[in-house]
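Worked example 3. Consider a protein that binds flavin-adenine dinucleotide.
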Amino acid sequence: MIRSKPVAIVGAGPAGMSAAISLAECGIRSIVIDENGGLGGQIYRQSPSTLRSSKFTQSKEASRGLQLKQHFQSFTEKIEYLPNTKVWGVWEKQLAVTGQDGWHLIDAEHLLLATGAYEYVPPFPGWTMPGVLTPGAAQLMVKSMHIAPGRRVLIAGTGPFLLVVANALHDAGVEVAGVVESVRRSEVFKSLPRLLNNFGLLRQGWDYLRRLGRAGIPIHTGHVVVEAEGQNQVEQVRFAPCHRDWQPDLSRAKTVEVDTLCVGYGFVPRTELAQLAGCEVEWKNELGGWIPRVDEDLATSRKDVWVAGDGGGVAGAAVAEDEGRLAGLAIARRCGAIDDNSFRLLRAPIIRRLDKLRRFRFALDNLSQLRPGLSTLAKEETCVCRCEELKRGEIEPAITAGCTTYRTIKTATRIGMGRCQGRMCWPAMARFVASKTGQPMEKVGNRSVRPPIIPITLGEMAEMEPSDAVADQGRNS
Ligand SMILES: Cc1cc2nc3c(=O)[nH]c(=O)nc-3n(C[C@H](O)[C@H](O)[C@H](O)COP(=O)(O)OP(=O)(O)OC[C@H]3O[C@@H](n4cnc5c(N)ncnc54)[C@H](O)[C@@H]3O)c2cc1C
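Given these inputs, the predicted complex is written out as structure tokens:
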């Protein structure tokens, strides 16, 4: 079955929702597709209605999310929303989706990708052990399911998200043994003048810190986690002070007894659909890695595909919301629903806000930019590719033999050939190759993707009756 819409939006987070609202306000109909069961994306993720009574629903962040959702839902005539639906392929102007009513194609004149980001975890000894999870996964457990990820938890990595999760776990009654942040306190102080440009967000960060301080939760700045240890699951974690490049000083490592370790070093933009659509990508370290190249109104190199939010560079929910708005207006202008003059008038305040927010984000991201010391954490026997169960020691001979790009290492070792298509392993392995060979990340290269970009079941595949066009292009990809 093929359904047609003027605009298809992938992702119902702040970027996707505000784009659909902008379009609806200009009179344009869109279809919004998301694999999650509810609106909100990552930050405004809803808990099941049976659980909606906790403090998570009373926070400032939750009330902004609620406002956005209500605004979105007020346009039922203009916005069709498809929850629990995965977009697993894109061919020219058609999206291949699988949802509650089976699989079908969505044909759209304009495509907006608001797909968000993944968390980044570099491999280190013990990282695949039960009890090690990402901060986002721990937050999901407490926020959406009201399940504690563990009894005593250590949170490690870099960036303000660690503080958000530490607070959420503490509020949920979990004992937080500490936060291990790789950036040094002195570096944070040096960045303060640049961060002051957004006092509201700075204050939010300060509040998170203050609440942790009041609860007696220690924050170990200038440290990295070096190992998770235990028999069948995490029992203790070793962390050590690190040099400026985040290489740990193992002689001064400390041990803390916990049953859970949450570790995350920021986010990686989710660009698979943009890549499949043939959009050009570029390397931007400060925005999380490879991102689609866009113009000032967020159109990609394929002029009918647009990108907004973290999927176009990690910059947080406020930027995502305004980028969604901007992309929505730009599409509306392209469709002829608003003229150039109205577009300019509506665009100006958004750009002003984005400039301010991006300056703040830039200072923050510079501070938390990943450093090469993280590539030294994995030992020879540490697993670096979960799907293919490859150890660092199995990859290194290929690099030494001259395989120094995604394509050559993948061919020589099978890294990235599993079901995640390199999503989990390649961002860290690419950094490892770059630091070992001295090559820039651009040279090491981006991973390639092919449909289905999200695992789909054999049952779902068995139901498929693809149109000839899709079948032909699928064979050529
Ligand atoms: C796990 C996690 C937790 C986070 N928690 C917080 C937080 O508590 N506070 C905070 O300030 N920031 C948080 N962030 C960062 C924050 O969510 C983002 O900065 C912001 O939400 C970005 O908005 P967005 O609309 O670009 O993407 P998102 O909010 O990530 O929304 C993208 C949506 O697209 C959907 N999607 C992607 N690909 C497909 C596909 N192929 N098919 C169907 N659906 C698809 C995703 O399921 C998701 O719902 C979190 C990020 C992550 C990854």
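Take a moment to read the result before moving on. Residues 10-16, 33-36, 41-43, 86-87, 114-117, 119, 136, 139, 161, 164, 267, 270, 273, 309-311, 316-317, 320, 454 surround flavin-adenine dinucleotide (CB under 6 Å). DSSP finds 15 helices and 21 strands in the chain.
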